[in-house]
Each structure stands twice: as C-alpha cells, then as structure tokens.
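Let's sit down with a protein and look at its sequence and fold side by side. Go ahead whenever you are ready, and we will take it from there.
>
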Amino acid sequence: MSKKAILISFGSAFLVGAIRDNIVKAGYRVIDVAPVIKEFNKIKFESDVIFFYLGNFLGDCNEFLVYLRDICIEEEKTLFVIGSSNEFQELSATISDNIIAKKFERPINIKDLLEALDDYSSQKENGTNRKNIVVIDDDIMYLRSIHDWLSDKYSVTMLNSAASGVIYLAKNSADLILLDYAMPIANGENFFTMIRSEPTTSKIPVIFLTGKSDRETVSRILSLTPDGYLLKTLTPEAIHKAVDQFFETKRIKESLYASQKNKK
C-alpha cells in the first residue's frame, strides 16, 4: 500500500510545516492542499486519509466544508481534524462528529497523531476498516453460512446468543446487527428492546432474521420498527445484495441529512 496522506491547511505555515515534517519522517508522502474545491478535486483520489488543520478561515469556506463532508461520506474517507475547541464547535455545524475519525486539539501531541495514522494504515492493510456486521443467531450452522456469504466485503462477528451480544456491545461497536428474531431464553425482540433503550447502542441499525414469513410474524417484527428484516430462506446472493443496499441507502440518507442541516 502506498502510504500517503492529504493535508488541508490555510496559513499557520510553521505549525503545519512541523506536522508535515513529522508525518513525512514516519514514512508517508504528504499532499498539501488549500481548502479550495477546485484544488482538492485534483488530488482527492491520492489518499483515503485526510488531515484538516483548522483555523479562523472556517467561516469563509462553508462551500468547501459541505464539499469535504460529502466527499468523506461518499468516498468513505478517513478524516482527522486539528484545531481548537472553538474551531471544532464551528466545524460541527457542517461536518458532524460521526464523520470525523479523530480530533486533535492544539497544542497537538504529534505522537498521538502518528499513532492514529499508523492505526489507520494497519487497518487498511488488514481489511479491518470494513463495515462491522454483528450476526446474533443460536443456529451455529447458519452463523457460519452468513459469515461465508458476507465476509468477502464485510467484517463479520458471529455471536450465538443475546447474552453474548450484550457482552460484545459493552466493549465494541457495530455498523449493523443481523438479529435472529426467534432465539431461546432471551429472544431477538427482548434483545432489540434492550439495546434500543441504552444510549450507547440505541443508534446501531438492526435487521431481523426470521425463518417465518407469515403475516403475524412479519407484522410483529415491523411493529418493533427495526431497520428491516430478512427471511432466512433467501439465497446468499439476495442476503448480500440486501446488506449492500442497506449501507448504500444509509450513506445517501446521511449525505442528504447533512446537506439539509447545513441549509437551516
């Protein structure tokens, strides 16, 4: 993998130069660019990791901030920002925290910055920056099957009980949970209700898995308002396509929401 990083800055030549020099010493090629759409367009495919050195110019480049936000969502760029608490607050009006990988407050600890960059590179090389899908199902064979179907594109974590899901989510996050509706002891409905009531897990998308397609079961699942449901009888290709479509729809919604929020 070619080790490159994009560094967006305007002014503050000495501080930006010190950061650039340290990134270069760590073995990366740094691509400098000003917060100008036309200039960034020329180099946006050079790297998936972006450092944005904030400053008092933020109020004058709102159009670029909107553009950068959309690029990070659509192209799945990793965005690190460097600035003051006031600048972070100003930036959040356009680029929300869930788009930013990490913030570094000035005066910056360059060691922390380089560690974050190395972590990103390691994840990229190992494929661990993939979307993490947690599958919870008491059927071990089905768990193995869905792992095989999705692991070409996603990081798949297999758990065989709701209790395992609780333990896992206490220390880890997930981009999507595929949840068996009819598990013994603590069933899918109970687990779903529990994680929706917890602030740390309430926003994790959940799609139910069910082997039943009768009206009563489907109506009961939909009444819980999950992010969807999938029949276990679907083909591997159909399951994969449904997951792909979920993430694509989510990406588009987030982009539209961010755009609408910025217009208010």
About this structure: Residues 132-254 form a domain with the Rossmann fold fold (CATH 3.40.50.2300). The two ends are 41 Å apart (CA to CA).
